[in-house]
Amino acid sequence: MLYRTLWVFCCFISSLYAQGTQALDQPFILAHREGKMVLAAFLEASGCPWSQRIKEDVLSSPVFLEGLKAIVVFTSVNLCHETNRQRFQDLFHIHELPLLILFNGFQEEIARWGLLTLDPKDYIKKIQLAAHSFEEIGAFLRQPHLIDNPEKIQTLYMHSKLLSSSYYSEQILQIGLEKDPGSFFLLEQYALLLKERSLKDPRIQQIRKRILKKNKEKEAELKMAVLEFEALSAKAKNKKRINKAITPLVEYIKKFKITGRDHVWKVHLMIAQFLFSKQEVKQAQFHIQAALDEAPDAFKANIKSIIDSFCQGDLH
Predict the structure, then answer these.
(1) CA within 20 to 30 Å of 133's CA: 25, 38, 160, 308, which one?
(2) What is the pLDDT of residues 2-31, one digit of tens each?
(3) The CATH number of the domain where 32 resides is what?
(4) What is the DSSP string of 230-283?
(5) Rounded (5°) CA angle 109-227-256
């Protein structure tokens, strides 16, 4: 087994070398030897203020380097030579710089980050969380029978979304659908299918019925209405589609106007914000006024300020 592992690793290093990415050879060899991950910073060699900024503010910080040295081998790659640059971009799907990519010892990408408005300590937290989540999720998928707590599986699922590959979230979703007696994973599956299928699709309707059967509370219907709105609003390019997009939210308001007043005003506000973004001012004004009328007194001042900002935007 050890011989095969070393053989695979050597083949990987040879592959990197053949593709002209020798700059990563040593970090991966060292990471494999020490049981660590590789954190690679891809930077523009010159003329990029953002690469210079992350280099000076984060990557050169002793706090950053010290905080991660226990789990990663850090390397910085300046992309300058045109041929070499293209090879890196093609191999690691680099579309903008600067870019940080966290790999395991065999070049599997774990997570990536561009330039964020974070200090070194906050970058460390993000990288540590991704590294820990990757290890924890891998252990869970190898032995899923060891964890039956639905909340723990939900946490692992949410953490899997931090990772670059959708493989992990897809696997946990399937396990969650089997183990979770609630509607959390059904709602996640519903959201994913809405990106691919229409609301009338039999599969969509089947899951919808299962969610309502498991959870008859109005919160479940609200979550479905919001998911349907989000899916439809992405395609709202004309007035007909705009009205179609808000239909799930409008239907929710009609159904729960009396029993769901704690949520109805928020739904009106969501509709108003969307309609204003589509320049449907009259419709938006109706819903923003409804939100103001329905909202608890503690929120009325905030809604009035939103109305003022909308009006100013409309005037300009």
Answers:
(1) 25
(2) 334 433 334 443 444 344 456 788 999 999
(3) 3.40.30.10
(4) HHHHTT--SHHHHHHHHHHHHHHHHHHTTTTHHHHHHHHHHHHHHHHHTT-HHH
(5) 150
